[in-house]
């Protein structure tokens, strides 16, 4: 049986990439390999982690390029790597309609809030400033809107009275690492269907 092929896109430290790579190596995401890791920034720690693991990497600098022109370069690299599923892991770019259409239904993102609350940057700070008692993280399919696609999995993290943005982010990150791997497994195994905005998991996938 041919393995499913994941491509991971990142811009920074790559902690969610590292968690996915660990899950693949440990067989928690079975019959799968990481085919390519792409960064838009040279020197991103996540790319160095991927190289240390012996994975195929590409740095495709985004500076000075229009969004779609850049995305066409990335899509070409992903197609060359025969990518089945694209996983965004701290990729600090909004994907163009071209990219989203090309990989329609095959792009996942992890976001550090319970979407649709607090999309965009600094979600943990937004949660604290809003005074919510619970935050968390969300794995969702990517569509043409920011942090808005159908939700695959979520995890709830209580907000403590003494939390700072850093302490809350650290606890959310631990849950991100857990549910991202689980969501990738569910999607690659095809154990779901999408009805409207809802991702309905098959009985075996619960």
Estimated helix fraction:
25-40%
Radius of gyration equals 16 Å
Q: Which strands sit side by side, in order, in the main sheet?
A: 3-2-1-4-5-6-7
CATH homology superfamily of the largest domain: Formyl transferase, N-terminal domain
Instruction: Count up the helices.
Output: 6
Outline the biggest β-sheet.
7 strands, mixed
- CATH topology-level name of the largest domain: Rossmann fold
Q: Can you walk me through this structure?
A:
The chain has six helices and nine strands; from the N terminus they run βαβαβαβαβαββαββ. The protein is of the alpha/beta class and 206 residues long. It has a seven-stranded mixed sheet with strand order 3-2-1-4-5-6-7, sandwiched between helices. The chain has a two-stranded antiparallel sheet with strand order 8-9. Helix 1 packs across helix 6 (165-189). The radius of gyration is 16 Å and the shape is globular. The mean pLDDT is 95.
Write a compact overview of the structure shown:
The protein is α/β, with parallel strands linked by helices.
Based on the model shown, name its key terms.
Rossmann fold; seven-stranded mixed sheet; two-stranded antiparallel sheet; 206 residues; alpha/beta
List the helices and strands and how they pair.
Elements: E1 4-10, H1 15-26, E2 32-39, H2 45-52, E3 57-59, H3 67-80, E4 85-88, H4 97-102, E5 107-111, H5 123-130, E6 134-141, E7 151-158, H6 165-189, E8 192-195, E9 198-201
Parallel strand pairs: 1-2, 1-4, 2-3, 4-5
Antiparallel strand pairs: 5-6, 6-7, 8-9
Helix pairs in contact: 1-6
